[in-house]
Design goal:
By secondary structure, this protein is mainly alpha-helical. The chain is built from 11 helices and no strands.
Length: about 220
């Protein structure tokens, strides 16, 4: 009984803390937009695939040419893989990424009528799509509750004191338990913005941090 009461109290404390963090981050970052640039739903999917082990800034330099070369999903599906590899070369792991993009385009056409599926289960069926990308699609495209656990989310959620683990799936599960569903996707975008501007991996600017008052500062 005592253990259950302690667990319940801890959960309430974590929820109260995250609400305060959300409020502070909202004051600092009014527009929690995804950094990846796209105009069509499936373009976000492909940009997210390119962003693996690559910066969003680099991806945004590559995708204009990529999306101009292949203006439709069917053009992606029938793309010459060597030509596609050449375009995305600077994003790293270009052979695997090119194959995944072509494979995903083909599957979207053959199994989903050319549209992105709106469930985690079906998104994970697409080549190269993991939970991080699937959550990004669910949150940004379909406006569903989503927790995008990227490197910024892993670092900040641990440093702030919301979790104490590095496994992305465990972090996603634990954050879902304390985040308001309607705030979860934007919260993750704001963590990215805060991680880039203030809370960097090596030299966090704690004196400029808008959430310093509720941060555990686990450096």
């Amino acid at each position: 009984m005592k253990r259950e009461k302690a667990k319940s109290k801890s959960a309430k404390s974590a929820k109260a803390k995250v609400l305060q963090i959300i409020r502070l981050l909202e004051e600092c970052y009014s527009e929690p937009l995804c950094a990846l640039k796209y105009s069509k739903d499936y373009e976000l999917l492909f940009a997210a695939r390119l962003s693996a082990q690559c910066t969003d800034a680099r991806v945004n330099k590559v995708t204009p040419r990529l999306f101009e070369k292949y203006p439709t999903l069917s053009e992606f599906a029938k793309a010459n893989i060597f030509e596609l590899e050449e375009i995305i070369f600077t994003c790293g792991f270009y052979r695997v990424k090119a194959g995944d993009i072509i494979g995903a385009a083909s599957m979207l056409i053959s199994e989903f009528d050319g549209k992105l599926p709106d469930t985690m289960e079906n998104l994970l069926r697409l080549p190269g799509v993991g939970r991080k990308t699937a959550n990004l699609i669910l949150g940004d495209i379909f406006k569903k509750p989503a927790v995008v656990v990227d490197t910024h989310c892993i670092r900040l959620s641990n440093r702030i004191g919301l979790v104490n683990v590095k496994n992305p799936e465990i972090i996603e599960r634990q954050l879902r338990e304390i985040l308001p569903p309607d705030k979860s996707s934007d919260f993750c975008h704001r963590l990215v913005l805060h991680g880039r501007e203030i809370c960097s991996a090596k030299r966090p600017k704690c004196d400029m941090c808008c959430i310093a008052e509720v941060c555990d500062k686990k450096l």
